[in-house]
């Protein structure tokens, strides 16, 4: 006879095995440091495990884990030792996309330069593919704030990437 706790653990383990790479990439985009991203994911998954039966029954696992990921990132950034600058700007070993190295570096620099609130909105809207309303609910802000943060973030990214593109062209000539 299989205990219900074993089924719970099996279901949780299957979810983590399937979603962990995406959770790591999202956390890495949020915080910009692969080591901190691992901490954020681990914290979010620990929160998820505690309430696993409830969120699984409600079929809201992805929504819960997104919110836990963002909240874990916010908690991590508030810790005094996290206010220090990161020792390295290492990119994760796993590929986030398939752009050229120069484009990847430029995109990462531009994303990292965004204020944390704008970065969170961009990650949830454009990485996770959430709607304005879903992003607002996950972050606990209004839909209007999501729209204005997205607009400002995309304008900043466009400007930064245009500047980077101009710099790359000058270096090639």
From TrEMBL:
Pfam families: Sigma70_r2, Sigma70_r4_2. InterPro entries: RNA_pol_sigma-70-like, RNA_pol_sigma-70_dom, RNA_pol_sigma-E_actinobac, RNA_pol_sigma70_r2, RNA_pol_sigma70_r4_t2, RNA_pol_sigma_r2, RNA_pol_sigma_r3/r4-like, WH-like_DNA-bd_sf. GO terms for molecular function: DNA binding; sigma factor activity. GO terms for biological process: DNA-templated transcription initiation. Residues 17-82 form the RNA polymerase sigma-70 region domain. The keyword Transcription regulation applies. Belongs to the sigma-70 factor family. ECF subfamily. This is RNA polymerase sigma-70 factor (Sigma-E family).
